[in-house]
Specification:
alpha+beta, Cytidine Deaminase, domain 2, 5-stranded mixed beta sheet, rod-shaped
Length: 238
């Protein structure tokens, strides 16, 4: 479980006796210090950045802004659906936090979505914690972005990873690689054609294409190692 947070100063913190569900007024949020790892871009650099606000659909923008306002301007994390062009079409709340931290709740089941959270101070520069979470989410197939409290600005830290289209193995190509004129025969000085080995390799190629579990039995001398390694390497090359 990841926690998106801004570093605090060292030393004991005074207990907070205020109600945890109290509304946070806008002036109070304006006084929240900026994350030391977040910086405002120089004017020239800021003007040269790409405007990604168009990637928030009106419906998604209304949902994001309303949920952040309902949370009193505190940090809120969302899982958002994106279309083929990368536009956020909808979003739902997954966690609500404080003015400087929120849980980043996402699992592999959320592959293909974009995790968004707001920075109440208005700076969309990712912190060190943001970058660490973004890297982990990318490995799960999830993108990561930051918005402001009004959901008018969007900074995409990591785009939603797109699944590669895998080409199915051709069992006849696998058979050829293990045949008298194939790559194995050319690489080995002494080669013996083994039809049962090629037959086994073709079954394994079909298993890679179709998925699932394949159980094969072959006697000594069939050449089982090459029979499964040749289709395995062909699949891995993709």
């Amino acid at each position: 479980m990841d926690l998106l947070r801004r570093p605090r100063s060292r030393g004991p913190a005074a207990p907070d006796r205020r109600r945890p569900d109290r509304p946070v007024a806008a002036p109070a949020l304006a006084r929240v210090p900026a994350d030391p790892q977040q910086r405002a871009l120089p004017r020239g650099e800021e003007e040269g950045t790409q405007d990604l606000s168009a990637r928030l659909s009106p419906a998604a923008r209304r949902t994001l802004a309303a949920e952040i306002a309902a949370a009193g301007g505190r940090e809120v994390s969302f899982l958002a659906e994106v279309d083929a062009t990368g536009v956020v079409t909808s979003a739902r709340v997954v966690a609500r936090g404080t003015v400087d931290r929120v849980l980043a709740l996402a699992t592999a089941d959320d592959r293909g979505t974009l995790l968004l959270h707001n920075h109440p101070n208005g700076l969309l520069e990712p912190s060190g914690a943001d970058l660490g979470v973004a890297a982990r989410l990318h490995d799960l197939g999830i993108g990561f972005g930051i918005i402001d409290n009004d959901a008018t600005d969007l900074y995409v830290v990591v785009e939603v990873p797109r699944a590669r289209e895998l080409r199915k193995l051709d069992p006849f190509e696998v058979l050829h690689e293990l045949g008298p004129d194939g790559a194995v025969a050319r690489a080995l000085g002494r080669f013996e054609d083994r039809p049962s080995q090629r037959d086994m390799a073709a079954h394994i190629a079909d298993a890679y294409n179709d998925g699932g579990v394949l159980l094969l039995e072959a006697g000594t001398g069939v050449g089982k190692s090459f029979a499964y390694l040749v289709p395995a390497l062909a699949w891995a090359r993709q």
